[in-house]
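Appendix B. Extra example for self-study. Work through it before the problem class; the solution is given directly after the inputs so you can check yourself.
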Amino acid sequence: MSQQRQGSTPGDAGGVPAFPDLPEATIARLPEYLRALHHLAETGAETVSSEGLAAAAGVNSAKLRKDLSHLGSYGTRGVGYDVALLVDQIEHILGLDKNRAVCLVGVGNLGHALAGYAGFASRGFRVVALFDADPNKVGERINGLTVRHIDDLNAVAAEESIAIGVIATPPGSAQAVADVLVAAGVTSILNFAPGVLSVPPNVDVRKVDLAIELQILSFHEHRKASLTALPGGRSAAAGNQEAVGS
Amino acid sequence: MSQQRQGSTPGDAGGVPAFPDLPEATIARLPEYLRALHHLAETGAETVSSEGLAAAAGVNSAKLRKDLSHLGSYGTRGVGYDVALLVDQIEHILGLDKNRAVCLVGVGNLGHALAGYAGFASRGFRVVALFDADPNKVGERINGLTVRHIDDLNAVAAEESIAIGVIATPPGSAQAVADVLVAAGVTSILNFAPGVLSVPPNVDVRKVDLAIELQILSFHEHRKASLTALPGGRSAAAGNQEAVGS
DNA sequence: CGCGATTTGTGCACGCCTTCACAAGCGCCT
DNA sequence: AGGCGCTTGTGAAGGCGTGCACAAATCGCG
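Solution. Structure tokens for the complete assembly:
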């Protein structure tokens, strides 16, 4: 068993598998596969076929096979994929075995909810610190953590290496917070504030804008309404089950 | 001025511009353009160049021009785009002039925050009803709305046409809630619960999974770490500012 | 009235992603 | 041992999206 396929770069340091240049689209789907696999494992399944896993993850089976083939050959022809093995592999690829530290900036309406979101801890992330600029919020205890002032961010980052920063502030403060995070050495940011962040090229930013999601749905709603109103108004089938991802 | 270009289908009912088959990628960017345009309008700008708007929206200027060209010719060569006109056009395309009714199911940690999210109302959406299955939550008042029991959803949908349903329940209840929404005639769903929803083909589902976003960031963090650790460890520049969208 | 500066709109080529279809491989049953 | 059915892994084709580079169009100025 051990490591069958090591990756591309031969001059590899240690046992870290070099990255076989996974397509972005594949990476965006791996977490969904992982969730489906965990669910399958709970039901006691030892192996899954690509068909079965694809159905559980909501994708085409061919796509799933191609995605998994990029990580190496972890399936057995005629049988399927070993669930436990695949879970380990994907978690390793995603770096989830590192139990990454996350800090959250902005303990307002949304930030408050995010701080208590159970889905983070259960999937390999530790929320280690909460920050806000409002002195009235500082000191408040949420889910076992005390809100600290944003000026303390540097100090906290110094003791504990922060892998990911989450921005849940009003739009006007987002850029300033991003600058602070970058200055503290954070190189991955999840931004819930509307607007574009300007960051150095080595920093990755993912943006989630709830209003944008609604607007996209509104468009489809608008389109469907105008189609069914037209003479040839059929069932207006089109793209559905659009998953968010880059 | 008025209408220069009406769309494709000539046999058009009323003044509704038939849909020129916008690419999905373009649709996903229109809301971001719209936000940038609103911001520009507030600063008093009458016109914008594609370069300027592209910068404000965080995209390539060529991409922006191509996107806008799909909606028709609303720019003037040598001058730029009329901000107010473009706002109207995009809002119309997205169907935001309809002031769509949104209902939210699941008033837990996240749902509570969503119910109070100001970004919805300010961008053309009205949260008209909150639902939950927990009797203890029913009756609670949030942001001027009273939480009702999920069984009342059909009745509410009968009086007020609900355009979009938002699911913010635990994963286990999501499918059941989706079924109720579909039965009530809702054809657009925004799902915050992990997992795949099964819906009829005429229903659009968009999914937002916060943990997935973190996992994707984790991957890039993992990748960057292993790159900088290698001999040729340069600044590890790669894809950044990845916006979420289908 | 003509010219140059500016900016839009778009044809074209390239690359990524998806999907199909099938050969190769594996296990089981006889 | 041999054959059969099932499933993976992948070559190839097609479609979609992006970005370049440029022609067409408009405005302002001399």
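Self-check: Chain A touches chain B through 94 residues (CB under 8 Å). If your reasoning did not lead you there, revisit section 3.
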